[in-house]
Specification:
Radius of gyration of chain A: 22 Å
CATH superfamily of the largest domain in chain A: L-amino peptidase D-ALA esterase/amidase
Number of helices of chain A: 11
Mean pLDDT of chain A: 89
Number of strands of chain A: 15
Structural class of chain A: alpha+beta
CATH topology of the largest domain in chain A: L-amino peptidase D-ALA esterase/amidase
Shape of chain A: globular
Oligomer: homodimer
Chain lengths: 413, 413
């Protein structure tokens, strides 16, 4: 299968700063993907804090279990990622593979097992070929290329473009860098299981504060996107803070969420998480349009979220958007099937700036031609106001096209 | 768009008995569909009991509201169905249209408004052209063709074949007929909104018993199917019992669920409901395979149902089946994302008679080649045993193919 780059891909790979205290490398294991980088590693200086979030699936991949155990301590020295094999539903063998990878790492970088984080992405049920993988991890740990683009490319599976975002901010007169890379072609495809994101910063920030921040920002980023409603066994987000840009003698660690210095960091952190999440949707399998769904006026936040999700996961809404068809009846259907409190007479719907439904009736100013023209673009906003309360939520998704079926029916064959 | 008949369609329209006390007719309104029947009516003799079930959506079409009100009384004289316009999300105008239709009917058949049942199927938000529709309903009420095939055809929208099932049984030495017709190309497509089913019998049966039976049998028929998880605004199932095959002087009405005569009737009723439901899946938009999903060994029934539904609604599972790909990792993913109690180590999976997973591990006897061969057929069984309890549920769905996208992206354009 030849991969066509998503029509929603950004024009260029972004320019990214280097992050003090992080040494990244890549290598080729020659296992699933021949002739391309498929191993990514990062070495962190001592004192690096780590925070993480993981798949909610009840079938968790072995590397997820491994990271969930190690994240409790909150300190990191090494991250190792392989692409091609998810190491999910692999039982005892899967656990052994993680043991072998961490033993191999400990031979090169002196650290405790709980300072190691392993992530895998790829086919469920197949075992990672351990010898070539360990060999490539060793090579990667010894390289000092520090090229983010190689890193972002090495973790790709069905992705059609590498995903990264970065930012520089000033805290305590020191320049702080934040860089994130991600992979994923939707929440989807456990087969190419699935979404990984890593954020690196040299800010000096306590692990608990970092974890709090990660949990909050997830809501508007990786937990606010869907391609097809399928949940991976391997979803992982990890944030690493080395502190190396701020560890002069006068610097104090950001150890409370009330620390005023956190505001700027949080903004940058939030932007990067959101940016990476949207890039995943822009690379959604078969995607030709990015759809933003805003639901306001719901009874409460949870209700808004469920309705937004119901619209975002409706194959009928997604195929209609893909066909640039202002088929608003399908949006109403998706609101109705969410089983949340609504009053049909109070529903308002705008598609972009086109008012379609006003207080439960077709707006007099509604023009199907104008709305269709708007929908022929690549960025589509569906803006629903339920007219009940102050509940608000938004979610991003992509359209459903024949490309999705082609990719998912062809893969493996 | 040229409609190709579903590859899963039955070879012939079934031979059906006539039902005493029911007079059916059809007509052409010439509105949405030119040159074909799009109006179906049935006139029932006095004393006919009716039971019904309706969409769970919070956006209910006007005809659904109309029937929900009238069903309380439990007696029926007239059923009138139009195809092409859903009369959903049409506000006051939609209510007026129903008033106008029932007034028109009352001019021809002397009855109370609450003895009338109106069903609509078609595009949401568009108004039914009332004059030609009323005119055609009048024509239909006066025809005496009594051809079930015409009836089944007249209620079709995106359907590619007419759906019907019938049976004869003996109760109290009298020949009892049951006939059902249905339309629907999935639970789906509110645009062509969506699923209607009507069951007619001349058994003498109390409305409460009929309603109880309908509620029970829904579980294994219309509530056990899904094409894409989208819920229509118009879903309606109505069962009419005229009693005319059993109304001799010695016949007693079946007025208790404990009546031993009910057993045979229930079996036939159940068979027809199930048969019609499966026909809807066989006509699922773009369907090339019928998928039966059995989940046993769950903690309880509710849990089994949620897991079965999670698998049935997973686009990734459905595309894999469509490609005859034994991509079992996706089934495991769909089990995991259901958020029900499971133990990965106890999961068993068979695809047809091929054991794939045994106690959480790939079976030694598993042959991908054999399983792929089985999956190239048209009827696919996914049989999951969770090894936890006695919870059991099954659901029927179809695969997800490019045909689904084509149908739903092309319609209206």
């Amino acid at each position: 299968m030849i991969k066509k780059i998503s029509p929603l891909a950004p024009d260029n790979f972004p320019k990214l700063p280097s992050v003090k205290g992080v040494l990244i490398g890549t290598a080729k294991s020659g296992t699933k993907y021949k002739g391309r980088r498929d191993i990514f590693t990062a070495i962190f200086e001592k004192g690096t804090a780590v925070a993480g979030a993981f798949t909610q699936s009840d079938v968790k991949a072995e590397p997820v279990e491994f990271c969930r155990k190690n994240i409790i301590d909150g300190s990191a020295r090494v991250l190792a990622v392989n692409a091609g094999f998810a190491n999910a539903f692999t039982g005892k063998k899967g656990k052994k593979i993680n043991k072998s990878i961490s033993s191999n790492i400990k031979k090169i970088i002196k650290c405790r097992e709980k300072d190691i984080f392993i992530c895998s992405t790829g086919v469920i049920g197949e075992n990672i070929p351990i010898r070539p993988t360990n060999k490539a991890i060793s090579v990667s740990l010894k390289t000092e290329e520090n090229k983010w683009e190689n890193a972002a490319k090495s973790i790709m599976t069905t992705d059609t473009f590498p995903k990264a975002a970065g930012k520089k901010i000033i805290i305590d007169d020191k320049e702080i860098s934040l860089v994130g890379i991600a992979k994923g072609s939707g929440m989807i495809s456990p087969n190419m299981a699935t979404m990984l994101a890593f954020i690196f910063t040299d800010a000096l920030i306590d692990k608990t504060v970092l974890q709090t921040l990660l949990n909050i920002e997830l809501r508007n980023s990786f937990n606010a996107i869907t391609v097809d409603g399928d949940t991976s066994t391997n979803d992982t987000v990890l944030a690493f803070a080395t502190g190396k840009a701020m560890d002069g003698k006068n610097e104090k660690i950001i150890s409370r969420t009330s620390d005023p210095r956190l505001k700027k960091f949080r903004e940058a952190f939030s932007e990067i998480m959101h940016d990476l999440a949207i890039q995943i949707i822009r690379d959604g399998e078969g995607a030709s349009k990015l759809i933003q769904i805003k639901v306001s006026g719901a009874e409460n936040t949870s209700s808004a979220k469920k309705i937004a999700r119901s619209i975002a996961d409706s194959p009928l809404v997604k195929t209609a958007v893909g066909a640039s068809d202002p088929n608003w009846g399908r949006i109403i259907m998706a609101i109705g099937k969410a089983k949340e409190k609504i009053n049909p007479k109070k529903i308002n719907l705008r598609i972009g700036s086109n008012t379609v439904i006003k207080n439960g009736e077709i707006s007099r100013s509604y023009s199907e031609i104008k709305t269709k023209k708007y929908m022929s673009g690549k960025d589509i906003l569906l803006d629903i106001n339920l007219g009940l309360g102050s509940g608000f939520s938004q979610i991003w998704t992509c359209d459903l096209t024949e490309g999705y079926i082609k990719i998912n029916a062809d893969y493996r064959s």
